[in-house]
Amino acid sequence: MAGVCPASAIAGTVMTVLVTGANRGIGLEMVKQLQSRGMDVIGTARKPGEAAELKATGARVEQLDVTDADSLAALARRLDGVKIDMLINNAGIGGHTAASFAETDFTQLDKTFAVNTLGPMRVTQALLPHLRRGEQKTVIQISSRMGSIEGNEGGYYGYRASKTALNMMNSSLALELGEQGFTCVVVHPGWVQTDMGGAGADITPEVSVKGLLDVFAGLGPGDNGKFYDYQGKKIPW
Description:
Organism: Pseudohalioglobus lutimaris
CATH superfamily: NAD(P)-binding Rossmann-like Domain
Protein name: Short-chain dehydrogenase
GO molecular function: oxidoreductase activity, acting on the CH-OH group of donors, NAD or NADP as acceptor
Family: Belongs to the short-chain dehydrogenases/reductases (SDR) family.
CATH topology: Rossmann fold
Number of domains: 1
């Protein structure tokens, strides 16, 4: 990956990072580790009143439902004048995980796409003015290797497809915004021990997030549009 200066400070300014879905799991751990690296962090939650652990970090906490246009517009208004150097679109759901096509529930599929695919793009669009004010202009989509067409092992129709679609949306975004100095990437956090990943997953949130943040710190223009895992390895599309 193309290297840039360590992300805690640029030209004497503190980096501002916004993390969606920050009330638990990977998102919550990201808030903690980003703060430990000296960054200003904004964490969002659908129900901030129930996000006690997130509030306890001392980060700025904002309400956001990534599927709700009014919620997105309200967030953008509350952040008026705030620069965002890095947006981490972490909010997501396991959603539709039917093993066979015959079991596919298209109502659940709609919800999965609304959160996992359209949600990150809605957030990015709403916060573009804030990102344009930032120095880093970095957009991170938390995807999954399960969205890799080449690596498809079958099953999980809705979840896989929602992440594949997110990857393609980001690829187009990278082509458009790259000319404006943006770096837009998708990343696989690993199989992580969270409510979604389950207790039998490979790695802890702490390990996943440390790896991801190390990857983010090394991103540069040459990484725009790429797909990496939490160790910085390229994943096939």
